[in-house]
Amino acid sequence: MGVLDGKVVLVTGAARGIGKECAVLAAREGAKVIVNDLGGGVSGGDSGDAGPAQEVVDEIKSAGGEAAANSDSVSDRNGAKHMVEQALDEFGGLNVVINPAGILRDKMFHKMDDEDWDAVINVHLNGAYNVARASINHFREQEDGAYVMFTSTSGIIGNIGQANYAAAKMGVAGLSRIIAMEGAMKSVRSNIIAPFAWTRMIATIPVKDEESQKRVERMKNAMRADQVAQLAVGLSAPSDVSGQIFVARGNEVFLMSQSRPLRGMTRMEGWDPATLLEHGFPAMKADMPDLGNTGSVFTWEPV
Q1: What span, in angstroms and rounded, lies between the C-alpha atoms of 204 and 274?
Q2: Is there a catalytic annotation at residue 147?
Q3: Over the stretch 142-192, which tens digit does the pLDDT of each residue have?
Q4: b/e string for 249-270 if b means 16 or more Cβ within 10 A?
Q5: Residue 189's CB: how many other CB atoms inside 10 A?
Q6: Do residues 280 and 267 make contact, with C-beta atoms less than 8 angstroms apart?
Q7: How many whole angstroms separate alpha carbon 69 and alpha carbon 55?
Q8: Quick check: 117 pLDDT over 60?
Q9: In the beta sheet, which residues pair with residue 194?
Q10: Catalytic residue among 165, 196, 198, 246
């Protein structure tokens, strides 16, 4: 008996990395799986290949599971609708969407091309919208459904050179939160994961110094895609967990804070620019998050 017995799961970007591990584990836990992957490169700059998704399907079937391949793009709204239709046609239902599909086009913001901005937003933010919008009414009508979306510490904490990716991933976090709030009365859940794992996408990040090299080696050796999949499939199973942000880092799982007031300042006669600069901002300074990246927040070795 698995935690997903009788469920139908759509996994996007499922030919490699986190997506593949989610698809394989979901099948092992009893789900019938639509294995979606465009088969494109990390930058999303080619037309794709249906072969990688079929390879994962073959692997699932060889282990005794049920799966079908899909090579539509999450960035195409008709493609997202087709993924849902395929699940309904082939397996008679859909209960879970796990959506790690993504690309990277890293560049300093002042050097960023419009094309690089649009491509990353289209795959990550619009892709999350497309897949969720294509499935949300089905979930609401059957009063059962779960989304597992993916954000990044590049967004919720910050990382230089990834303005497009960070903006998209923060947008996905907001989308997940609202879907969870609006879906609560219909038993539709949505949670989001910021994963630490060595994947093709991470392998594209430039290594410019010794510290970066050490960080890469840590990720290769101690933070694997299969560990992230455990959390994703756990969030796919029936529970009352919804609207949350998690970080998966090796064998560690963190529940992340969400924006709430840190400190308030009141001035009965009202604030003006001068008093804000003289009193307001200095009083709040100790509670202001600094400009450190993920490494300054997760300062210890992964467990």
Answers
A1: 46
A2: no
A3: 999 999 999 999 999 999 999 999 999 999 999 999 999 999 999 999 999
A4: bbeeeeebeeeeeeeeeeeeee
A5: 26
A6: yes
A7: 9
A8: yes
A9: 247
A10: 165
**Which residues are CB-contacts of 4 (< 8 A; sequence separation ≥ 6)?**
26, 29, 30, 31, 96, 233, 236, 237
- Residue by residue, DSSP assigns the chain as --TTTT-EEEESSTTSHHHHHHHHHHHHTT-EEEEE-----TT--S---SHHHHHHHHHHHHTT-EEEEE---TTSHHHHHHHHHHHHHHHS---EEEE-------B-GGG--HHHHHHHHIIIIIHHHHHHHHHHHHHHHHT-EEEEEE--HIIIII-TTBHHHHHHHHHHHHHHHHHHHHHGGGTEEEEEEEEE---HHHHTS---SHHHHHHHHHHHHH--HHHHHHHHHHHHSS-S--S-EEEEETTEEEEPP----------TT---HHHIIIIIHHHHGGGS--S--HHHHS-SPP-
Token output for 266: 């009141």
Pairing of β 96-99 and β 66-70: unpaired
Q: What is the pLDDT of residue 13?
A: 96
Nearest of 20, 3, 124, 131 to residue 67 by alpha carbon: 20
Q: Count other C-beta atoms under 10 Å from residue 101's C-beta.
A: 26
Written as six digits, the tokens of 125 are 């933010």
Superfamily name and number for 8-259: NAD(P)-binding Rossmann-like Domain (3.40.50.720)
CA 17 to chain centre: 13
Per cent of the chain over pLDDT 70 is: 92
Cα–Cα distance measured from residue 82 to residue 76, given in angstroms and rounded to the nearest whole number? 10
Q: Which residue has the tokens 């529970």?
A: 239
Is residue 244 within 8 Å of 184, Cβ to Cβ?
Answer: no
Q: Which amino acid is residue 124, in one-letter code? A: H
pLDDT classification of 49: cutoffs 50, 70, 90: low
